[in-house]
Amino acid sequence: MARVVVGIQPTREAIRVHGVAVERLLFERSENPRLAALARLARDTGIAVDVGTRLQLDQVARGVQHQGVISFVPEVKLVPFESLLTDDAALVMLDGVTDPHNFGATIRSAVALGSGGVVFGENQAAPLTAATFRASAGAVEHARLCRVPSLRGAVEEMVGRGLAVVSLEADAELTLADIDLRGAAAVVIGSEDKGVGRAVRKGCSARARLPMSGKLDSLNASVAAAVALYEIRRQRGA
Which strand (E) or helix (H) includes residue 39? Predict the structure, then answer.
């Protein structure tokens, strides 16, 4: 079954990654040169291209901004948890991030900064929908996503295997730079309103905060993920 991806950049990335496996593209009638270039790319790749009205695209997109193009691409393939537990793992774990835009933007940050995977629970997580794919700006096509039955259980298994699993919290005594992240590591990011849940927090090997100016005490999930992954890369000399 195909999934719906909307927007110019997400569609372009879907074509780059999946090629002729993309089922088809639906374009709005338009003189937009960016849309025309995308249509040429699709046809050159061997993908069927259809033209529809704005109303037709709006109905398929269901409120997500589509920029005049919708693509029907293969479903996201989730990776097994075990495959993420490598010696150089740099993972992002999301606890209670239910907003699809924040989830998608976090995926984008993770891919851009070389995360080995994004882990989230079956419950209390944003769905993998067109809104999430749109917010990732196509990064979801490159991401390694892992859904686990229990985030707490995943955290405890990681710690048991020697990974540094750090819960990001505004009131932590240590900053993230104080934690040794040169080995396999994961950062756990909670929702903006509740933060990391108590059960998950208790399973982590450390608590840390991101250095802030003092005027605000938190960042949204995607920015926090970017800062944390940058710190991991910095410690590893990347």
Answer: helix 33-45
Q: Which pair of tokens denotes residue 96? A: 């209670």
Q: How many CB atoms lie within 10 A of CB 178?
A: 11
Q: What structural domains and CATH numbers belong to the chain? A: 3-73 (3.30.1330.30), 81-235 (3.40.1280.10)
Q: How far is CA 202 from the centre of its chain?
A: 24
96-134 pLDDT per residue, tens: 999 999 999 999 999 999 999 999 999 888 999 999 999
- List all residues 6 or more positions away from 179 whose beta carbon is below 8 Å from its beta carbon: 164, 166, 206, 208
Separation of alpha carbons 231 and 71, rounded Å: 36
Q: Do residues 179 and 138 touch, judged by C-beta distance below 8 A?
A: no
pTM of the model: 0.92
The residue type at 100: P
Neighbouring CB atoms inside 10 A of 172's CB total 17
Q: Is the CB of residue 67 less than 8 Å from the CB of residue 7?
A: yes
Q: Do the Cβ atoms of 33 and 104 come closer than 8 Å?
A: no
Q: Decide: helix, strand or coil at residue 7.
A: coil
- Find, among 52, 21, 201, the residue nearest to 60 by Cα: 52
Cβ–Cβ under 8 Å, residues 127 and 98: no
Rg (CA), the chain: 19
Residue-wise pLDDT for 12-37, tens only, equals 999 999 999 999 999 998 889 999 99
